[in-house]
Amino acid sequence: MIIEYPGNTQYMRYEYHRVREGPNYFVTYYKHSSHLIYDPKDAWRTLGVAKFTDGGKNLKEWCLEMDSTYNVKKVEPRKDTSFASEVEEEENTKMVV
Q: Which of 4, 28, 80, 82 is buried most, with the most CB atoms less than 10 Å from its CB?
């Protein structure tokens, strides 16, 4: 699913792509250059010095909103609670031969 930035013009275009598998990403087109970017702040930084204008600030808000709304945070792996993991953590273990 593609969500377009409402302030797109002929020479500046930003899209947020939501995908089923893999991370969501931004596609940017500015100054005859196109980029695929995963970080919302990097998408905003493609404006260069224009990022300090009102339109640049609106774009930053939109990028951060898209990322916070649709980006799924990675699940942390569960801690191993088996007996073997407890033995590895102990420092004073002796091997019986």
A: 28
Exposure on the CB side of residue 23, measured as CA atoms within 13 A: 11
- Dihedral angle over CA of 49, 59, 67, 24, nearest 10: -80
- The pTM of this model reads 0.69
Cα(85)–Cα(77) distance, integer angstroms:
15
Surface-to-core class of residue 63, CB atoms within 10 Å of its CB (0-12 exposed, 13-18 middle, 19+ buried)? buried
8 Å CB contact between 18 and 1: yes
Digit-coded pLDDT (tens) for 45-71: 999 888 899 999 999 999 999 999 988
Q: How many residues does the chain have?
A: 97
